Structures are given as C-alpha cells and as structure tokens.
Amino acid sequence: MIDRQEPSSFHEMIERYNRQIQEAKRRPPISESPPCPNPEPQGSSCPPPPCPPQKPQPLPDRESVASPSRRPAHHSAPSLPEKPCDKVSCDDKTDFSQTAGIRGPVLLQDSILHETLATFVNHKPLERVLHVKGYGAFGYFQPYQSMSKYTKACFLQDPAQRTPTFTRFSLMIGSQDTPDSCRNVRGFSTKFYTKDGIFDLLCNQIPVFFLRDAMRFPEAIAALSPSPVNNLPDPSLFWDFIARTPQAMHMLTWLYSDVGTSCSFQTMGGHGVNTFVWCNAEGKRWYVKYHWIPLAGERYIDRHEAQQTAGQNPYIAGQSLYHSLARGQVIEYELRVQLMDPADENNVPFDPLDDTKIWSETQYPLLPVGLLTLEHNPDDYRSQVEQSAFSPANLIEGIELSNDAMLQGRSFIYWDAQRRRLGPGFRDLSINCTPGWSPARSFVTSGEGMPVSGVETRACPRDSDPFTQAGERYRSLDALNQEHLVDNIASELYAMPKHIQKPVLDSIQKCDQAFAQHLVRQMEIYC
Ligand code: HEM
C-alpha cells in the first residue's frame, strides 16, 4: 500500500520515496495486481487507477480546459500521440504534479508540488560560520572522585554517577570538503546533559589562541580564510596577520608544529584554552583550565604525511571515528584540570586570564577529574551533529566565566550564531536540551556575589610579553619536532615579501635566538 501521508521533513520524504520505489519494484505487473489487502472505505489508499492504456489516445482538448476564450489558437498543444508509461511506479500519484489535463499546464494550486520543492530547497540547515566540518559521538562522563572541594557542579559530585554526553569534533577553518588531515585548529566540544541543565565544554587541540581579546577575532579568521578576491588559498594573508600580531607567536609555535596536522580525533588532545571559574558550596572560587587526554595516546603527523593523506582520504579522521564506534570500540579521554587560587594570580609572571599563555604543569599540576567514554555514533547527522549548538555560556551552578577577555567576548556570540543558523527555537532541539531546562530560567550567572570595580577603558591588560612562552615552547621540543616546526614555517615564509618576513623574523628572534637562526637557514634552502 502506498503511504499517502505528507512527509514532515525532507529526510522522511526521501525515505518514503525510496520505500515506494522498492515496493513498486516488488509489485507484480499492473494487470496482475492483487486486490488491495486493506481496502479503506473511500478507497483512497487502494492502488490507484492503472497506467493509461498503451494504445495511443487522442490528447484531451487543452483549449477546452484552460479558458478557451482568452487563449489564442497558436497556443494549443500539438496533438502528440500519448507515450506508453515508462515509470516503474506510474500508478503512484505522488510522482506527478497536478495538471490541467494530462499534458499540463501544472496548476499553481498544487501545494503538494510546491511543498515538496520548498522542503527540498530549505532542508539544508545553514552552516556554522566556523568549525563547519565536524563529526559527532555520544557517550557518558563519570568522575573519578567527588570534586566538591572545588566545585558544586552537580555532575562532579558522585563517582558513581554517569552523565550522558554528546561530543563534536571539528575543523575550525574550511568547508565540508576540507581534508581532515590538513593544518588546522581542531575543535573538541562536549555537551554534558546534567540534571541541572546543559554544560558545554568547548576545547581545541591547541592550548592557546592567537589573541587575548575578542575584538580582533574576525581579523584572525579572515587571515586564515581563502582570499576574498579569488577564493584561493593565500598564505600572505596569514603571514601578514602574524607580522602585525606578536601576541600570536605562542599559537604559531603550536599550529605550525605537528600538533597542527592530524589524521585521528582518537589520538588528539583537547584544551579549554580560556580560564573558567569553579565555585564550591561555600562560595570559594578557583580559576580552572580544562584538558582532555586521549587514553590511546597523543599522536600527530608531519606536513608531508598530512598532504598525502589529504589526497588519499579527506575524511580519514571522521571515518576512523565512525568505524571504530560502529565496530563497538569505545574511545576514552581523561578530563584533567589545572586549578589556581585567584589569590595567587599576582604570583605568576603572566596574566592567568590571558589565553595566549599556558600554566606551568609543575606549578599547577594536572588534576585527574574523570573519564569521557564515547560509545556510539549518531543516527541522524543533521538533527544531531549539524544542529548541535555549543556555547561557552552554557553553564551550570558551580561553573562560571572568569574575566578572561576572550572568553567574555565569546559568551554572547555563540547563541547569536545559533539563532541565525537554527532559528530562535534552537534550544528546543532535542540535541540541545535537557527536559524542562533553559538558560533563561536557570539564572546561572557568572560571579554572583563577586565585587566588581574599575574605570572604563580600552587598553592592553597587564603583562603583554608575547615571546617568553613561545621561546619555551620551541626549546621544549625535541630536535625532530624543532626541525618540523621550523621547516613548516620556512616552507611558507620564504615566499613572503620582505615587509612581512622581517617583522615575523624579528618576533621569532625575541622568542629564541636559536629558533630564528634555524629558521633563516631553513628559508635559504627554499630560496
Ligand atoms: C572571540 C573569539 C571567538 C569567537 C567570536 C568564536 C565564535 C564561534 C562561533 C560563531 C562558532 C560557531 C557556533 C555555532 O554556529 O554553533 C564557534 C564554534 C566553535 N568555537 Fe569559537 N569563537 C571564538 C574563540 C574560540 C576559542 C578561543 C575557542 C577555544 C576553545 C573556540 C572553540 C570553538 C569550538 C570548539 C567551536 C565548534 C563548536 C561545535 O562543534 O559546534 N572558539 N566559535
């Protein structure tokens, strides 16, 4: 029997279409059609009338159908012999537009046709402005022990409690066709469906960012994007940005190391980048930085392997994630945090709220918190992965924003982006909600009860040393990884004009003299 219910979505429409094609193929020839097994009183669901007879018939007089008095004679259709029906399921009325007579015209009133086409042209949700290409996985999080000393966050109190999660891995720059292995910032966002509501933890594989203030973020993204003139890759946009942005030096030493190229999310780390605040039941606050450690170990690939992989399989990381979960393997990441008493913030040689800096692991050890276990694939990419809406402002009691300027700049813009791409009801989509909860009703705000003071200003915050940690990063690499970092930079920087090369080399010299010398030698090889 043909399903005559209207499709509620494009997806259903396609499924129904495929079902009908399959059924039609199985159905015996029309002359041998069995009687309708479930005849309905009006007969509307029974097999519709058979194909028009194969013997050519004169076409109905279209003039008599379409207001003959107003149509000139030369508009009449030529009297063609009717062709035999060549459709497998020509008895399926839903395959045809509604026409005035068999050869048309198609009637404007055919709302079913318009709905079918309008559903098709509108079925694709708008893409994210960033992190367009992504893959998802469901799982759960379980703490190792109660973290009540540091936070009252409900899902971190009881080691026996499992909190359901959804994780989306993504590439920050590029389109749906960008190869998974290319040099990129990779996103690692997790939604925790807690009993107090949604908590989102957005991480990148690189622990620092290009900028410490959100104001220049659009400029950074433009520098990483294709040329606005011809849509072709233009490395001079990036290197010009780096030449003008010494604070990006530290990020450069991560992005242009092998950490920038990878063929697997299972062996990739994640870092919250920004500094958040944990608050316990007594109101004691801690600065907190988040880190995910893959239990499979961290592994990255070099630029040559990344390029080769990009050509061979642009979906390598997504496929590996999907097939591992489909085979029943679980993928695990340990959540660790670094905690700093805000009273100590003046005792570190940098601003702990500056996201171009990392915290020393000796001074602020990585404290294990719990285990994220990814265990199954999404069943519907569009409604689960595409329509997932993460925000650093999706917080629950016990977790707050700090005064990290970049984080505060991010706090509104994700919801705004989601209103644009998913509509104002984005929080009601099942992937984005826990029943009965909405941030507007939860009244979780940052720093309730914290004193705030200061003179209005637009100024560079305390400590703007952009070089020390970048130099430390270079020196922390072994010889092979130093070689890769330097070669990755040299392979692009050598081709830049002098007015870009010079300030970049000056900045690198301020990071580390040997780093700069190594780079100059390597650039000479390319020249
Ligand atoms: C001012 C700076 C930033 C702005 C304006 C910004 C803006 C955005 C926007 C608009 C999206 C897409 C949201 C959506 O449509 O759902 C996005 C996604 C994302 N952002 Fe940012 N971002 C900033 C900085 C950062 C930083 C520092 C991180 C580091 C953790 C980060 C991590 C992510 C991740 C992981 C995603 C992907 C989320 C997903 O999978 O849906 N962003 N960002």
At CATH level 2, the architecture of the largest domain is Beta Barrel
The overall pLDDT, averaged over residues, is 86
Helical segment tally?
15
| Fold-level CATH name of the largest domain | Catalase HpII,  Chain A, domain 1
Radius of gyration: 30 Å
- Give the low-confidence spans: 1-11, 24-82
The succession of helices and strands, N to C, reads: HHHEEEEHHHEEEHHEEHEHHHHHH
Class from helix and strand fractions = alpha+beta
The tally of domains stands at 3
Binding site for heme: 414
Biased composition (Basic and acidic residues): 12-26, 83-92
Cofactor: heme
InterPro entries: Catalase (IPR018028), Catalase_clade1/3 (IPR024711), Catalase_core (IPR011614), Catalase_immune_responsive (IPR010582), Catalase_sf (IPR020835)
Task: Write a brief caption for the model.
The chain has 527 residues and is α+β, with helices and mostly antiparallel strands. Helix content is 30%, strand content 14%.
Molecular structure report:
Belongs to the catalase family. This is catalase. Its cofactor is heme. The chain is α+β, with helices and mostly antiparallel strands and 527 residues long. The protein folds into three domains: 1-31 and 86-101, no CATH class; 133-234 and 263-442, Catalase HpII,  Chain A, domain 1 (Beta Barrel), CATH 2.40.180.10; 468-526, no CATH class. 30% of the residues lie in helices and 14% in strands. The protein has helices at residues 10-26, 62-65, 111-122, 217-224, 235-243, 249-255, 303-312, 316-326, 381-386, 405-422, 439-442, 468-476, 479-493, 498-511, 513-526, and strands spanning 133-143, 163-171, 186-194, 197-204, 270-271, 276-279, 285-294, 331-340, 367-376, 399-401. Strand 3 and strand 4 (197-204) form a beta hairpin. The radius of gyration is 30 Å and the shape is globular. It starts with 9 loop residues before the first helix and ends with a helix. The protein binds protoporphyrin IX containing FE. Residues 128-131, 134, 168, 170, 187, 189, 202-204, 209, 214, 217, 273-274, 388-390, 406, 409-410, 413-414, 417-418, 421 line the site of protoporphyrin IX containing FE (HEM).
